[in-house]
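Researcher: Here's my situation. A collaborator sent me these components and asked whether they could plausibly form a single complex. I don't have experimental data yet, so a predicted model of the whole assembly would be a useful starting point for our discussion.
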Amino acid sequence: MHRENPVDPGLRAALRLRLGRLDLDVELAVEPGEVAALLGPNGAGKTTVLRALAGLLRLTDGRVVLDGRVLEDTAARVRAPAERRPVGMVFQDYLLFPHLSVVENVAFGLRARGVRRAAARRTARDWLERLGLPGVADASPRTLSGGQQQRVALARALATDPRMLLLDEPLAALDVSVRAEVRRDLRRHMREFAGVNLLVTHDPLEAIALADRLIVIEEGRIVQAGTPAEVTARPRSAYVADLVGVNLLHGRASGDAIELEAGGRLEVVGAGSGEVFAVVPPHSVSLWRSRPDGSPRNVWRGRAAGLDLLGDRVRVRVDAGPQPTLVAEVTPAAVAELGLAEGSDVWISVKATEVRVYSI
Amino acid sequence: MVPGRVPVLVSATVALLLAGCGGVAAQPAASSTPQVSGSLTVLAAASLTQAFTKIGDQVHAKYPGVDIRFSFAGSPTLVTQIQQGAPGDIFASADQANMQKVVTGGLALTAPAVFAHNKLEIAVQSGNPRHITSVSDLANPSLKVDVCAPGVPCGTYSTTVFGRAGIRVTPVSQEQDVKSVLTKVGLGEADAGIVYATDVKSAGGQVQGVAIPDDQNVTAEYPIVELKTTQSEPAAKTFVDYVLGAQGQKVLADFGFLPKATS
Amino acid sequence: MVRPVQPLNPVLVVLAAAAALFFVLPLAGLVARTPWASALGILSDPQVQLALRLSVICSLASTGLAIVLGVPLAWVLARLRFPGRSLLRGLTTLPMVLPPVVGGVALLLAFGRRGLLGAPIAGATGLSLPFTTPGVIVAESFVAMPFLVIAVEAGLRSMDVRFEEAARTLGAGRWTVFRRVTLPLIGPSLAAGAVLAWSRALGEFGATITFAGNFPGTTQTAPLAIYIDLESGQLPSAVILSLLLVVVSLAVLVALRGRYLGED
């Protein structure tokens, strides 16, 4: 391909392509050793990004450069096919070759590159040991548990010594009961990998647990990127807000009040001016049987539209007419005391000091 | 009583009585053959295809009550069908050997009668591109020669011809009837084939004929017979008589067959 | 606990029995009329042995040809999209519904000495397929290949294409992907298709006799020999050969044990 450029390691990609109804236009930059997670709803284009980076899809327009090596450049009409990219991929349902044993699966990439059978198998066994699977080398993939299959798939991808590792929903196919444990293991292996690490998921918990960086993608566009803390603290889309379970409002600020786009008005502290997001944590929303008489600045009347028991809390969604819909988090005892049910009249209040505002 | 009048009276009465008992009053006789009718299946050797079809038309025209269906195939094929009980009224073979199988099997109603003769001829592609002029030319191994299978009359006859010419010929194929041989030559797949002179004539411009001299040639004898399985003996007899009669013989001669009696 | 037995519809049983008889009776007739005494004599007849040997050689060769040409065709039909694909698929299955004699005629018009392709080849090399053993192989492949193409195409379609993608991301080139991933995964379909093609080739008659001709040792395969025997009144020989072919075909079908039909 082209000569290596150690000055610019990592992934630099500009991807534009059309696939069915999806119109993808994203730019990515991931450093080697960094774990980035592409997070988004189904149909957002996450898997498409992975497949394009792997070379399984052609770009309509754009560039993919990995460690200074140009893998694809539509302008220069350069394209390395999938088999020539130093990229390892772990698929959502692992896709272990059913007609080959575990060790043959892991050795596949090496054999495909011309390594002799004995040497390839040795390397494969090494990888299996490293990933904690010493005894299953000669087994058939069918006989393995989900967690084991995932590790074999990872070993298979890593055995070819790729410069970039792509994982498509790595935990989605697993039972909930094993997910936590596998997630911990996966996190460790991914951090040990020295190259670029990009995973795709629709599960925010997975993303937050595994990644150093979150890239939120919706309808083919990146809507937000940053550390997990940054993204969850300052969600920029309803999707992320929903994911992290906060009330996200959007409006125009002037001093201590925000005129909300969806209607209504929120009193806050030091909002500045201009277009802003306002985050109201559900635990900051209080519920009353009758109009409260006290310090909260934001008080209005509404109707309980839905109640969800989450662990030992109850989330109550309150529709409030011209004012925004808010989700409040209260104890089950409070619900009982208030006699809350779907359709009940209720008053809510939010302290201005508990509203987090940040400009768009 | 007057003695002379009683006998007259008696004879007159007797005459009247006799006339009454005589049935239908005598009428002048009309010249009409009783109309023959029936459905016939004629099993005939392939080489008789064109000639017999025409004879069939003529018979039907003359006796509209007679419907004729033909089944043309190699003679051994027809023999097997007859032996296995296929319904047929008449069998016309291209050689005596096959006819004998039917006779000895007790399947013939009448005694076979020879109705025609035929001679063999070499069929070549029109224009004779391989310049074949005699039987001995066929010994050339680079030529593709097609013949009938042994057991099929023209196949048996071909072997005799080759023997008389003193040559060995390895044919490229052995066909079940003579028309297939003709087709292969006509299609250009075979360079030459041994067929009947009548076949060359009926093929028109598709093939050309190279004569076989009499000292090498074989005279094929064609017998015809009514079968025991006939459903309509009068109609069958009518057909056979027609074939053996002047009109049938004329048709056969038109198609190149030699007459039934070789003198 | 006794499972309740569903009462069978008598009409259904009668019809099914009739259908079974329909298949069993002809075979029973064959076995009943077999002249066991003369069997050995017939089987050691050189012409019979020639026919059998030719049948085996030609059917195997035509199956081989069907695989070599049919697998790529199946791949193209299953994996590529191009205008006229359904037409092409229809054409490749045509020999299955065409009367074999018609196939023979068509082959003559294409590959005969005056045929579309045969004429220039004969002109240049002096060679032509009719009356030759390769001609038999071509005729048999013509009728047998569709079975293979259909089976392999079905196998390719039902296979998860993503296995091929996974192989590519591991660095396998197209040929390696085909050899080490695709072929093993469609193995059963390929095997079933090959066996069906082989048995069809073994039994082929109409196209062979029309296109290749009939000569002992060169083009007279077992089915042709049976036909010839029958036509010339040699029933015992025909029956023995027929029985042999039936036994062989039956053995093959039993060995497949309904795998082609999806039984386990």
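Model: Some features of this prediction you could bring to your collaborator: The radius of gyration of chain C is 22 Å. The mean pLDDT of chain C is 89.
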